[in-house]
Amino acid sequence: MNCPICGEDTVKPFRPFCSKRCADIDLAKWLNGSYAVPSQREDDLDDEIQDAGEFKDRPH
Ligand SMILES: [Zn+2]
């Protein structure tokens, strides 16, 4: 059985997907279908990581 998202072999905890990532992608498809909103989750995540990095480097 293969992951419907990327075609890799499935992994038990994430069936029918190969990973949480692919399960999230499938979920996002459903959510996007419901709300018709472009996905910005990864952009938001990058911003958070950058902000955290700046905060850490910033002298106080
Ligand atoms: Zn997959």
Write up what this structure looks like.
The chain is mainly alpha-helical. It has one domain (12-57): Erythroid Transcription Factor GATA-1, Chain A. It has helices at 20-35, 41-57. It is elongated, with a radius of gyration of 16 Å. It starts with 19 loop residues before the first helix and ends with a helix. The mean pLDDT is 79. Zinc ion binds next to loops.
Instruction: Give the C-alpha Rg.
Output: 16 Å
What hetero molecules are bound to the protein chains? zinc ion
Secondary-structure element order, as H and E?
HH
Distance between the termini: 53 Å
- Main sheet makeup: none
Binned, the helix content reads 55-70%
Corresponding CATH architecture: 2-Layer Sandwich
What share of residues are in beta strands? under 5%
**What spatial form do the alpha-carbon principal axes imply?**
elongated
Structural domain tally: 1
Structural class by secondary-structure content: mainly alpha
State the CATH topology: Erythroid Transcription Factor GATA-1, Chain A
Number of strand elements: 0
CATH C-level label = Alpha Beta
Uncertain segments of ≥5 residues (pLDDT<50)? none
Discrete helix count: 2
Average of per-residue pLDDT values: 79
Give the SSE layout.
Blueprint: H1 20-35, H2 41-57
Bound molecules: zinc ion.
Give a summary of the structure in a few sentences:
With 60 residues, the protein is mainly α.
Keywords for this structure?
2 helices, 60 residues, mainly alpha, Erythroid Transcription Factor GATA-1, Chain A, elongated, binds zinc ion
